[in-house]
Amino acid sequence: MKKTIVLGASDNPSRYSFRAAHMLKKHGHEVVPVGIRKGEVAGLPIHTDRPQEQDVDTVTLYVGPQNQPGWYDYILDLKPKRILFNPGTENPELERLAHQHGIRTEEACTLVLLSIGQY
Asked: pTM for this structure?
């Protein structure tokens, strides 16, 4: 299955990143929650130390564009196959950088893609 970094992970059940982590795990994907606050989501610890994972398929973003620049190097260094810009996270600058590094981008909702079998 697809190793996915959930960037902007939260232990708050009302957050979409919380729902995405649970749904990804339910669909059998390896989930690595990364956020700014420690906690737990989908039975996994939320990493606040920017873990250097290998073989990352997808980084799914739950961080607004105004807060993304501090994450650019981390995201690009992971060398994911794609970056999913969930609604509200669209960022032309990061999309351009990703394309320069050979990373596909998609403006889509992780929850919708999973629910229709297109993840």
From this structure: 0.97
Record the tokens describing residue 22, joined without a space: 């649970």
Rounded Cα distance, 24 and 1, in Å:
10
Residues in the chain: 119
| Cα radius of gyration (the chain) | 13
**CB-CB contact of 78 with 104 (8 Å):** no
Of 118, 117, 79, residue with least CA distance to 98: 79
Sequence letter at residue 66: Q
* pLDDT tens for each residue of the chain, 119 residues long: 899 999 999 999 999 999 999 999 999 999 999 999 999 999 999 999 999 999 999 999 999 999 999 999 999 999 999 999 999 999 999 999 999 999 999 999 999 999 999 99
Exposure string for 81-98, b = 16+ CB within 10 A, e = fewer: ebbbbbeebebeebbebb
